[in-house]
Design brief:
With 264 residues, the protein is an alpha+beta fold. Helix content is 19%, strand content 22%. It is built from 6 helices and 13 strands. The two termini are 29 Å apart.
């Protein structure tokens, strides 16, 4: 594994122990962050009336301009400190909560929605704040040290109130242990795929938008039967020869048509 460049040894130990980390420092350069904000505003303005801003999943399949940020050297440096020097982009998702009420994100583990997609299930999510994110506008909450399972029992929840249509059954974790991910714009949190997390509806007068950028080690395998609905991209380092990669200069609208699971 390459030497640490972005995370201190204390931060790395914290991430591995707690399952998450707050990075309360700018993730992108100032000009690059402003460019992302402008680009997202254009995407938001182009949504059809029936499209929810919380559900802008895998936008990079059809918007190749996003690789400017998904392959940002500073972002990849942080992820490399956790996963090592050989990295693939697994997924991305704009989760934009409009003011005055929005869908909530039910308590979940990302790994549950990706069951059978990755071997092993080791994904680092960089949750980049495009707006200030706090308890007033529906910030994300995590349950520390819950990244040892990843496949809790779930029950169905209403699709008109939730980003995902299932939620972890009550009694499987202590909600009293939740920690808010308080972020200023251009700061980020990182979390493990198996960590329990969620967020309430945004009842404030402000937007709350995050861009989740998800990465895996290049030695992680995506079984071929997933290729009809998903695509990996090699981001840095060595290709271990276990996956077929998409071209970041090519769009894949057919993948969006094949995806059956909302939100992931």
């Amino acid at each position: 594994m390459a030497g640490l460049k972005k995370l201190s040894e204390q931060e790395l130990t914290y991430y591995n122990t707690e399952g998450y980390l707050l990075r309360q420092a700018p993730m992108l350069s100032d000009w690059k962050f402003k460019a992302l904000k402008t680009h997202f505003a254009e995407l938001l303005a182009a949504l059809k009336p029936e499209q929810r801003p919380e559900l802008m999943d895998v936008p990079h399949f059809t918007d190749i301009a996003l690789f400017e940020w998904l392959f940002d050297e500073g972002v990849l440096d942080v992820v490399e400190d956790i996963l090592g020097p050989d990295l693939d982009l697994f997924s991305s998702h704009f989760i934009a909560k409009p003011p005055g009420g929005s869908l909530r994100v039910p308590w979940h583990e990302d790994s549950n929605y990706w069951k059978g997609m990755l071997e092993p299930m080791e994904v680092v999510t960089v949750w980049l704040a495009l707006d200030d994110s706090d308890e007033g506008n529906g910030c994300m909450y995590v349950i520390p040290r819950t990244h040892d399972n990843g496949f809790s029992d779930y029950y169905d929840v209403p699709a008109d109130k939730n980003v995902f249509v299932t939620e972890i059954r009550k009694g499987q974790f202590d909600e009293g242990l939740k920690r808010p991910m308080l972020l200023k714009e251009n700061q980020a949190s990182l979390h493990h795929a198996k960590l329990i997390h969620g967020s309430p509806s945004n009842a404030s007068s402000r937007w709350r938008t995050g861009y989740t950028m998800r990465y895996i080690a290049s030695s992680t395998r995506l079984p071929p039967d997933n290729l009809a609905r998903h695509q990996l991209y090699h981001a840095r380092g060595r290709d271990h020869g276990v996956n077929r990669y998409g071209d970041p200069g090519t769009t894949y609208p057919e993948l969006l048509l094949n995806r059956k699971m909302r939100g992931h």
